[in-house]
Design brief:
5-stranded antiparallel β-sheet; 19% helix; alpha+beta; elongated; single chain; 8-stranded mixed β-sheet
């Protein structure tokens, strides 16, 4: 079968049969559990006398954003994005036959249906009913109902948090069969995997606010160093897990973010940072910087800044951004690195002139 013909079949199936959108929403409602709720998020799925009838949601646990929202971590690699779509278990054979055959019959019987579109729908129907296939894509006899309960048809799922509609709808393969316990056919490169789950966990990860301890705390003086630090107790690694559990297919991935540095941006060019780059690296004990103690007012801090001009009646917005090293581990001993992430917040700093005392 030619590439153009295959694209036509896919496009026709998407628009006139079940399609990506129609398949995606029943299969998944990608809603992370509340922040740090653990693994108690509700799931769907199971089997009855007709076999497996529904797929589970992707379950999120650990430090994740609430209500399906994306987390607050930003990838340091502008070219990396979370998975825009993927293929995942959808329905058992009998239930898929009911859904797909009904949709194809409805499409074929629409008034004015004919020509190329009608021909393409007919070929999709043959694909699932009469064992009609092509290179790397075998056909099915009667929707594989003789194997009901032994596997599932997989279908495309859109990532609802992907803003680019072209990326979100780029999973255009027709629904395909996967036996329980078997890997999806290799030509479906975007089939759900631990690596894809790791990317989704990254997308929904919620990092703690970055509020550094300062001395002086909020009102500093012109030309006097301000010390900055983060204690290990409030500055530790964060984990988010994404899991998919359906009969015959269970995978998960945990994405871990470890803080590696703190960047200080004074909010004005009339300032100096320590070190000069403004990048304070993590200490051996997991902290950053050094707490201020009495008698160090005139010393240079290992992490901090010095304002050279008063903020007048206003304040400067000191931005503190943490860089996080992010990696993942998953089912089957899989794992690897993901791009570093960043998350920062701002603090209002009042800078005053040192008042001279006349005697």
């Amino acid at each position: 079968m030619s590439r153009s013909r295959r694209i036509l079949l896919r496009a026709t199936a998407l628009t006139l049969a079940l399609g990506i959108v129609a398949l995606a929403h029943p299969a998944y409602s990608e809603e992370p559990s509340a922040f740090d709720d653990g693994a108690d998020s509700e799931q769907q799925g199971g089997s009855d006398t007709t076999g497996i009838y529904a797929a589970a949601k992707i379950q999120y646990s650990g430090s994740v954003a609430k209500g399906g929202a994306t987390g607050n971590v930003t990838s340091a690699d502008v070219n990396w994005t979370p998975p825009p779509c993927w293929y995942a278990p959808y329905l058992g054979a009998k239930d898929f036959k009911k859904e797909m055959s009904g949709s194809l019959d409805e499409a074929l019987n629409k008034p004015g249906m004919g020509g190329t579109a009608s021909s393409a729908i007919g070929e999709v129907q043959r694909h699932y009913e009469d064992d009609y296939g092509w290179t790397d894509t075998p056909g099915y006899k009667d929707y594989n109902v003789d194997k009901d309960g032994e596997g599932m048809f997989w279908a495309a799922v859109e990532n609802p948090n992907e803003p680019d509609v072209l990326k979100r709808t780029s999973c255009t393969d027709l629904p395909f069969w996967v036996d329980n316990g078997e890997a999806p056919p290799p030509q479906h490169e975007q089939a759900i995997s631990p690596e894809i789950l790791a990317g989704l966990a990254y997308q929904h990860m919620h990092l703690p606010d970055t509020k550094v301890t300062l001395a002086p705390a909020a009102n500093t003086k012109v030309n006097l160093p301000t010390w900055a630090w983060l204690d290990k107790a409030v500055f530790d690694e964060v984990q988010a897990t994404a899991a998919l559990n359906v009969p015959g297919f269970n995978i998960q991935a945990t994405t871990t973010a470890k803080p590696v540095s703190l960047k200080l941006e004074p909010g004005t060019t009339d300032a100096e940072t320590y070190p000069a780059s403004g990048e304070c690296v993590i200490n051996a004990d997991g902290s950053i910087g050094e707490p201020y103690t009495q008698g160090k007012a005139s010393q240079t801090p290992p992490c901090g800044l010095k304002y050279l001009r008063s903020s007048g009646d206003g304040t400067y917005n000191l931005r503190a951004t943490i860089t996080w090293d992010i990696a993942w581990t998953g089912t089957g001993g899989t794992g690897g690195d993901l791009p570093n992430g960043t998350f920062g917040s701002e603090q209002a700093i009042a800078v005053q002139e040192i008042q001279a005392v006349n005697r």
